[in-house]
Amino acid sequence: MTQHASPHPQGDALQAFAGRELPPEAARQVERHLVECARCRSEVEGWTLLFGQLEELPELTPSAAFRDRVMAGVPSAAPAPGTAPETAEDAPPGLFTRLLRQLRSWLPHAGGRAGAPDSEGPVRPDPSGRAPPRGGGHPGTDRIQGLLEGSLSPAILHRVEAHLDTCPDCRDVAGEWRPLMARLDQLGHLPAPAGFRSAVMARVDVQAVAERARRRSLSPLRRTLELAGRLRPRSSRGWLVAGGLGALPTAATAAAVVAITAHPLLSLGGIVTLARWRLTEWVLGSGEAALGHLASLGGGIAITAVQAVAQAPGPLAASMVVLAAGTAASAWVLLRVLPIPSLIASRHEHRPS
Amino acid sequence: MEYTELDDRDVVGHALEGRQSAFGELLSRYERPVFSLVVRMVRDPSLAEDLAQEAFIKAFNALDRYDPSYKFSNWIFKIANNLTIDHLRRRKLDTVSLDAPTGGEGNGETEGLRMQLPDGGETPEEYTESRELGGRIEAAIGHLRPEYRTAILLRHVEGHAYDEIADIMELPLGTVKTYIHRGRSELKELLQEVTA
């Protein structure tokens, strides 16, 4: 499955995008997703094509017989009062168009859902609460609610207001919704119980929050330095442990070098060569030839460097200087924090004369 | 220090400097809205008090992680809503009945909810009718699914925009619109049933 940086738009977002009904931010998100998702692009193209075709459907004039057959078979498709002709003489081009509009209204898209539970009967404007058809027809209850709460975009608001100016049924529907919307808007806040504030503040550690916020505001370097400062030993015993830990690697390395070079049959160069052979065998044995060659080459360079350091007087001397500096630093730390002089002095003082 | 002129982000900034009075200002701004949302969700003032307090405590103790690019009101409502929804899911509280609204008169809950409805300078008859309708609306809201209830309350009581509600409820915008429209439709039906 193809992984996209952004998730697929959910619900009816693609339909709403194709119908240009998404808010700007949501539309931009969908646009960004479409750049990377062929499946959603295809779906949007499909909806765009469909909506375009629906918009361009021509007004057709069915025969009177056709109208009679439809009216006999679909009694619930009666036109809304005040907007539809009641006689065969008035019939005309509008009937088939109304049926098409009804068909369009059954297409669910953003702003309304098919099967919404507010069905009020077949002759009411947009009885099922579906979104209004494009290019005319009664606005859905969602649009009427949007009109009453002032949440419609200017273009849709203009269309709905223009429709209500000419449609008494929709004005009635708006009138039915108005009291509920008004009462909902009048719902007020309830007072918090006495002691609410003190109960909250008793369990908020203001200083801890402020301290964490201060630390978060520091640069990474300052934060690291501050962390190091917090880890700094606070006592002589702490410094002793820290100095000991710091001197340990240096002491261990020095001891190893001394032990190896002191043996009459061993030399540092011989150990390094043996290690190189073992490494090459191990890597080649794993079956990864390319990796083996690479590791052999890398290992060879490293080992050659170690050999050069071990055998050439200059690098060897430099290494020993570094080692000595590390040891000296560790010793300085130990001497600085350990009360060795005072211990020696006290021993002298307590030595029996 | 006077905080009334400052917006929420600036007040949060002062709170993060360790000023307790800034926390108090945030509380004074949002204790009523948050408590109102929660009490209308759980229909139990005592429980709502605990949940609303928990929301503030959680938010304030994590204030150093608050992102100033995000509206503080959305943040506190999101925390309160999540706590409330979690509680409702755990307890699966029964929704109130229109015939016996919100525990009856014994615990004063319904009265507590009703008494805050503004009268708006109405005549006594209108006031009585308004109170009755207000009480019925409160009870009908209690009858909605919790998700519809939250969306309706955030929209009508708090006046949040749809996208803000989607953000607070962590739902797609289209879902929030559907919740609000269906919630209103259910309210309309419930109120028609009562008045019929």
Polypeptide structure, described:
The complex is a heterodimer of chains A (353) and B (196). With 353 residues, chain A is mostly helical. Among the domains of chain A are: 57-185, no CATH class; 235-350, no CATH class. In chain A, 66% of the residues lie in helices and 0% in strands. The longest helix of chain A has 27 residues, at 236-262. Chain B is mostly helical. Residues 95-121 of chain B have low confidence and may be disordered. Chain B is 70% helix and 0% strand. Chain B has a domain at 1-93: Rna Polymerase Sigma Factor, Chain: A. The interface between A and B is large, with 55 and 61 residues.
Briefly characterize the structure.
The complex is a heterodimer of chains A (353) and B (196). With 353 residues, chain A is mostly helical.
CATH topology of the domain at 1-93 in chain B: Rna Polymerase Sigma Factor, Chain: A
In helices, the fraction of residues of chain B equals 55-70%
Radius of gyration of chain A: 43 Å
The CATH class name of the domain at 1-93 in chain B reads Mainly Alpha
Calculate the mean pLDDT score of chain B and round it: 82
Helix-and-strand structural type of chain A: mainly alpha
Put simply, the count of helices of chain B is: 9
The CATH architecture category of the domain at 1-93 in chain B equals: Orthogonal Bundle
Instruction: Say how many strands of chain B there are.
Output: 0
Shape of chain A: elongated
Work out the strand percent of chain B.
Answer: under 5%
What's the main sheet of chain A like?
Answer: none
Query: H/E order of the elements of chain A?
Result: HHHHHHHHHHHHHHHH
Describe the oligomeric state of these chains in a short phrase: heterodimer
Helix content of chain A: 55-70%
Instruction: Calculate the mean pLDDT score of chain A and round it.
Output: 70
| CATH 4th-level superfamily of the domain at 1-93 in chain B | RNA polymerase sigma factor, region 2, helix turn helix motif
Distance between the ends of chain A: 90 Å
